[in-house]
Each structure stands twice: as structure tokens, then as C-alpha cells.
């Protein structure tokens, strides 16, 4: 195996002699070459777990990479030369911070090694790191995403990010997707605007919404966000006006200010969807798809929800939101007690020479003389409720309730009515994910129209 064919190595002097001998032998067997001096292009092997040896990173250059001692064995195990991919544009190692919320020591060490193998620097501080790695299943991860959302050139990535980059042999960051900023509200000017104010406002708009086709420029949040930047020294000027005034200034002069924005954009030439742009947020990590409950058919042709049971004589509609209504009615009917029986004949008495009532004919003469034995009529027993029938009704009712919640959530996210969502849900044969994607796409198309269309 010659995976290091033509590759030069330099062994850091602080490595123990016996370890150096082992490394020389392994590198030679794999087709590599060990130099006595630091090569212009190649690898510097050092014990990077030792803080003292981390000074070897000073030898890092655009074509010379510092890696740990285990790099040779890792390449041998992988059967390939592990490429240096975690690099900045100028060839320096990419600063990466492994957040302390990842408490498993062995897992942290494994991440360090993988990053070092690929020429990255996993010991960067939280402030200096280009990438911050944290567990996406924790509240810490969401807090980091929210905190650094407006910080350019800083990314929050999950634990799987390193392996994905190695698999693709290149660095990529989780993309940002457009999220509709929301409603509008009129503002007012309180301080006289200057040409400098307008120029800075246009620069802000050009950075956040360079392309007007992605959304209007009069949303409240765009200007609220501008005023939130007042803590940064370079944005101290925003305190001259309220966010309502900044918004109103643009709104009243949109035609003129849009030309200034377009001129700035033609100079900076940003790409649509860059991290700093307004309305683009970090894409959520992939979530497992929800499996719909399938319907199984009973031998006699009646359909039942899987997991429930029935007598075989009851028919359940396969559509959950229809079945829910019918089943709730059945359940109410089953649980309603029958009213007490009140037969008027049982209370009749003999009137004059009329024949005696029926109840008197079945009693003895003594009872006839004494009159009927008046008793409260016994109520008939309510119909018996089988466990299977009750479980069926409850299961279908719950399924219908869950479906209504899902449809309401899609309606809230896409800003369509629940009736419209249900119409597409029925059209697509009960596929919630397809319904959600379709309506989301329709909403994006609607948002793409300008106010003048």
C-alpha cells in the first residue's frame, strides 16, 4: 500500500526516539518520505495532546499541515490519505470550538483527533472560533444558534458535521432558508434625517435584503433588528432615530432609496441566501419522518384502525377527521343511559263498574281488595358496552384529534386556512408531509410577488 507516495513528513523533535523509529518505518512502508528539515509542502507530526507541543502549529502554512502522531495509523486504517479539508481561505487551520456541553470526554477526544487529521484547529475559544460544535438535541444548541444568528462568518454545527465534511471531502455549512419576516406597522419620524443617515440605512438594507424579490423592505423586524445593533460601535448611529422612524423614512422614499440600494448591491455583488441576509435562518436538522397509521381490512370487508378492535359489524370511515366525528357520536350514544320506563297501565285503578286493570287480574283476591302494590317502575338496564367497542371509539377519536392538530399547525406555518389545508390533505390521499411541502411552496410563490403586482 503506497497511500503516501510522494508525501513528505517531518517529525517534531519532542517526539520520543522509539516513537520516531516506529513512525519512520510506517511512513516508509506506505510510500512516504521522512525529511530531516521542515518541508515546504507536507506534514509535521507532533504530539498535539501535549499543550507544550501545540507550539508546533507555528509551523503551519498554506501547503504544510500540522497533524497528530496517530495520523499515519489513521490513514493506514482508512486505506487512504486523509485530506486536509478544515482550512481557511488563506490556508490557515480553521478555528473550531467543541462546546463544553459535550460532556463525554472520550467523544470530545475523538472529535479533536478527526479535526486535527483534516488540518483543523479544535482548540479555538468560543469567541475566535469560526465553527462552534454542540449537541443539537440540547437547549444549549438552540441558544447558541439564536445568539450568533446575526454574527457573520460564524456557524453553529451539530456533532455529525465533522463526519459529513470528511465523507464529502470538503467543508460545508448548514444553509439558511428564507423565513417570512411578518407584519407591518406605520412609524413616524422624530429627528431630521441627513444624507448620511439615508446612506447608512441603504447600506443596511443592501446587506440584509439585497434582492427585493425575496421579500418586502418595509417589515418591522428589519428595522427593529437594525436598532438592536446599537450596542456595536459601528452601529452607534442607529440611536438617532427609532426603528419606526427608520422604517417610515424608507417607506416614504422607497423609489429613490431603492436606487441607492441597487447601486450598493452592484458593487458588493452578494449571493442570495448568504448568512447575514435578512429572512434567512439556519435550516433545521433532519428529523425522522412521522409514520402514518395504516388501515387494515377485516375479513368481512369492514375497515378498522390498526391497534383498535371491533365486533366486525361496525364500519369505521377511513378518513380520520370524518371517523372522529362519527365515533364520538357513537361513543356518546353508547354511554347515554336509557330513561326509566314509566308504563301508564301499571298505575291504573278500577273506576266504578269498569273491569279491573290487567295487574289486578294476576293477583289474588286479598291483593285485589287491598289494591295494587304500588312500586317504582324498575328502569331498564343500559346497554352493555364491550371493551373492544369502547377502545375502538376512543382510538379513532384520538386519531382525529391528532390529525386536526397537525392540519392546524400546517395552516399556522403556511398562513392558509384549515379548510384549505384539509382540502389539499384529502387531495393528496392523507399525506401530511406532501401537503405541508405543497402549501409552503405556494406561500413562497405568493411572497415572491412585489407589492405593485
UniProtKB/TrEMBL annotation:
Pfam families: Myb_Rap1 (PF08914). It comes from the Eukaryota. The keyword Nucleus applies. Keywords: Chromosome, Nucleus, Telomere. The keyword rRNA processing does not apply. Coiled coil: none annotated. Residues 193-253 form the TERF2-interacting telomeric protein 1 Myb domain. Residues 275-324, 347-371 are annotated as: Disordered. Its main location: nucleus. It is found in: Nucleus; Chromosome, Telomere. Involved in the regulation of telomere length, clustering and has a specific role in telomere position effect (TPE). Homodimer. Belongs to the RAP1 family. This is DNA-binding protein RAP1. It comes from Lentinula lateritia. The lineage of its organism: Eukaryota, Fungi, Dikarya, Basidiomycota, Agaricomycotina.
Amino acid at each position: 500500500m503506497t497511500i503516501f507516495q510522494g508525501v513528505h513528513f517531518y517529525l517534531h523533535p519532542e517526539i520520543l526516539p522509539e516513537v520516531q523509529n516506529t513512525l519512520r518505518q510506517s511512513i516508509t512502508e506506505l510510500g512516504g518520505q521522512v525529511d530531516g528539515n521542515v518541508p515546504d509542502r507536507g506534514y509535521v507530526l507532533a504530539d498535539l495532546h501535549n499543550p507544550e507541543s501545540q507550539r508546533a502549529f507555528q509551523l503551519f502554512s498554506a501547503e504544510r499541515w500540522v497533524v497528530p502522531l496517530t495520523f499515519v495509523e489513521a490513514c493506514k486504517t482508512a486505506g487512504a490519505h486523509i485530506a486536509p479539508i478544515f482550512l481557511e481561505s488563506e490556508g490557515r487551520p480553521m478555528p473550531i470550538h467543541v462546546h463544553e456541553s459535550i460532556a463525554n470526554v472520550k467523544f470530545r477526544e475523538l472529535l479533536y483527533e478527526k479535526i486535527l487529521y483534516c488540518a483543523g484547529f479544535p482548540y479555538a475559544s468560543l469567541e475566535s472560533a469560526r465553527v462552534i460544535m454542540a449537541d443539537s438535541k440540547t437547549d444549549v444548541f438552540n441558544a447558541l444558534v439564536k445568539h450568533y444568528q446575526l454574527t457573520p462568518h460564524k456557524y453553529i454545527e451539530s456533532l455529525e458535521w465533522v463526519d459529513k465534511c470528511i465523507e464529502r471531502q470538503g467543508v460545508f455549512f448548514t444553509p439558511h432558508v428564507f423565513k417570512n419576516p411578518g407584519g407591518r406597522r406605520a412609524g413616524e419620524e422624530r429627528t431630521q434625517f441627513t444624507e448620511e443617515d439615508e446612506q447608512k440605512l441603504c447600506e443596511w438594507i443592501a446587506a440584509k435584503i439585497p434582492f427585493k424579490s425575496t421579500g418586502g423592505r418595509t417589515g418591522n423586524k428589519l428595522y427593529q433588528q437594525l436598532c438592536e445593533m446599537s450596542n456595536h460601535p459601528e452601529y452607534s448611529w442607529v440611536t438617532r432615530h427609532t426603528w419606526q422612524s427608520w422604517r417610515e423614512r424608507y417607506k416614504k422614499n422607497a423609489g429613490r432609496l431603492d436606487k441607492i440600494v441597487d447601486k450598493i448591491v452592484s458593487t458588493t455583488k452578494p449571493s442570495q441566501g448568504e448568512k447575514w441576509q435578512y429572512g434567512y435562518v439556519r435550516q433545521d436538522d433532519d428529523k425522522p419522518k412521522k409514520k402514518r397509521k395504516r388501515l387494515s381490512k377485516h375479513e368481512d370487508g369492514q375497515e378498522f384502525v390498526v391497534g383498535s378492535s371491533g365486533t366486525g359489524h361496525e364500519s369505521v370511515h377511513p378518513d380520520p377527521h370524518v371517523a372522529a366525528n362519527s365515533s364520538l357520536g357513537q361513543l356518546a350514544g353508547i354511554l347515554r343511559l336509557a330513561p326509566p320506563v314509566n308504563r301508564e297501565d301499571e298505575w291504573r285503578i278500577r273506576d266504578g263498574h269498569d273491569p279491573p286493570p290487567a295487574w289486578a287480574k294476576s293477583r289474588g283476591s286479598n291483593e285485589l281488595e287491598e289494591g295494587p302494590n304500588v312500586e317504582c317502575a324498575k328502569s331498564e338496564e343500559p346497554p352493555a358496552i364491550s371493551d373492544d367497542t369502547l377502545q375502538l371509539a376512543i382510538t379513532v377519536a384520538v386519531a382525529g384529534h391528532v390529525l386536526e392538530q397537525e392540519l392546524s399547525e400546517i395552516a399556522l406555518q403556511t398562513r392558509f386556512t384549515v379548510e384549505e389545508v384539509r382540502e389539499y390533505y384529502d387531495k393528496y390521499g392523507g399525506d401530511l408531509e406532501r401537503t405541508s411541502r405543497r402549501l409552503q411552496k405556494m406561500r413562497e410563490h405568493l411572497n415572491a410577488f412585489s407589492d405593485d403586482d
